[in-house]
Amino acid sequence: MSYLNQITSPTLLLDEKICRHNLQKMAEKAKRHQMKLVPHFKTAQSHQVGKWAKEYGITEITVSSIKMAEYFCGHGWENIHIAFPFNPLETKKLNELAKNQSLSVQLINVEVTEKLAKELEYPVGFFIEIDAGYGRTGVEVTDFGLMEAIMRAAKSSDKLIFKGFYLHAGHTYYEPDKKAVYEQTKAALSMLKNKYRTEYPGLVTRTGDTPGCSVMEDFGDIDEMGPGNFVFYDIMQVNLGSCSMEDVAVALAVPVVDIKKDRKEILVHGGGVHLAKDVLTEPDGSKNFGEVVYLGENGWTIPLQRSYLKSISQEHGIIKASDELLARVKVGDVLGILPIHSCMTADCMGSYLTLDGEVIDHVEQNTKN
């Protein structure tokens, strides 16, 4: 049965071929630069996508929460890194998972480090997260006192093992000069590696943003990359120059419920509870919540004339429709929306439908069930 015949309500479609191509391309890039690819699975959050990733030599993954780490435990990963400043209230759960799975966490202060050093029952690795200009979280790159205090606190236990430094250059999402951002990132991580590798000869450095990892060709002596969004990409990444629209691997299928030809608007069942509310601004100041594509038996095609989702509420979406779209669509049809932010859309939807009609798992689906 065609995947199209299975759609009666908003459904997140996943094109396996595009997803695999994105995985292969990033894996080849990491290999070309002699780096390890440790993708961030906050985007896909799926065992099936993990199986595809393993086919391209990926053996370790990154996650953003202990709940996500628990979901991926026991599925053959050499290590699972939780890339969020560790929440000390989850120490008991960390101990439970570390009994059977190699894990690492992210530390940014002495208090949490001391708690883990006292309470860990099984070995857990840790990265010190570095802030080199993004400003979201992390130890400031020149705050050696805090870094060394974290290292000293960890040494009081044989269960807490220093792995290296993690730097998420998230300002590549809003700084147009990504090369300048990466010069800063490379310099920061190289300086820290040179400063501490005598004491910790096995330490590694890792960076992890999709815009930088997609476009940069000079990573200096950074050891590992951990981008996440690249597995699906999205319209934000297209807008940033990370990829083309043809590289976006997910589309939200939305039923058409009304058409206002005089206003050039199409009402669809698909809103904030499906797409989240990430938005881009059009040149005329209007809002864009996703790009319209045509769905067919073999996937989706990009229209010659643009149409986009101009507004959303909880369940409603209103498309600003081109003449081309108005001429071919009718009530009861299903359109595709390429999301602005695929990570949030996937999290909202909680599962995927492939073009072969197969339902693909997601962390949220597993939790709800």
From TrEMBL:
InterPro entries: Ala_racemase_N, D-amino_acid_metab_enzyme, D-ser_dehydrat-like_dom, D-ser_dehydrat-like_sf, PLP-binding_barrel. The keyword Cell membrane does not apply. This is Alanine racemase. SMART domains: D-ser_dehydrat (SM01119). It is an enzyme of class 5 (isomerase). Keywords: Isomerase, Lyase. PANTHER family: D-SERINE DEHYDRATASE, ZGC:162816-RELATED. Residues 249-356 form the D-serine dehydratase-like domain. Belongs to the DSD1 family. Signal peptide: none annotated. One of its GO terms (molecular function) is alanine racemase activity. Its EC number is 5.1.1.1. Gene3D superfamilies: Alanine racemase (3.20.20.10), D-serine dehydratase-like domain (2.40.37.20). It comes from the Bacteria.
